[in-house]
Specification:
Layout: H1 3-6, H2 10-24, H3 28-49, H4 55-74, H5 79-104, H6 114-127, H7 135-152, H8 157-178, H9 187-217
Helix pairs in contact: 2-3, 2-9, 3-4, 3-9, 4-5, 5-7, 6-7, 7-8, 8-9
Amino acid sequence: MNPVRRYAFVPFIALSVIHVLLIAFGNDGMVAATKPLLMPMLLLGFLSAAPMTHRLVVGLVVGGIVFSWAGDVLLQSPGDIGFLVGLGAFLVAHLFYITAFLKLGTGKVKLWVWAYLIWYGALLALLVPGLGSLVVPVILYGAVLGTMAILATRVNAVVGWGGLLFLVSDSILAMDRFMPGYALPASDVVIMTTYLIGEGLIAYGVVRALRALNAQQS
């Protein structure tokens, strides 16, 4: 493997570690400054490592990363409007990922993903009383998020774990924001750690799947 491709994701990993440490130490100014750089760094790593023989899938994952970046930036805006627009950006990101997984995935959906349906019902039961006017957007987002995580299991185990961790991150974020009395220690650290690992695994897992597909076709 080309050494550039082998280490393509190292800058993203390093910046992610730095960003999470900044959150843990409460350096809000540097957290705000580094957050918009995370997804561009992942995008550079993905484009450096991904084979370009399947441009549609690569383009779809690029769309997912770009809209995830938009969500990162917009969620830093105060109030419900910023949250709602950021949620919309992440919803579009999941739609890109869903389409990529449908194009790339050749395996069957795993039997254990019925647990995602239980998660969806339980999460809504916990959140709906505190959602107010955001009930419909959050229900829609949860359905799309769960679909992304389920279809991720069709690609390979790496992408499947990425989808699961993305789901965990967004679930904790939703409970942290909308559940009265909910308090997870160091929730910001947990949310960003699971989110960044999830995004990274999705990108890396797609690269592995594309390489495996190339090997089968050669």
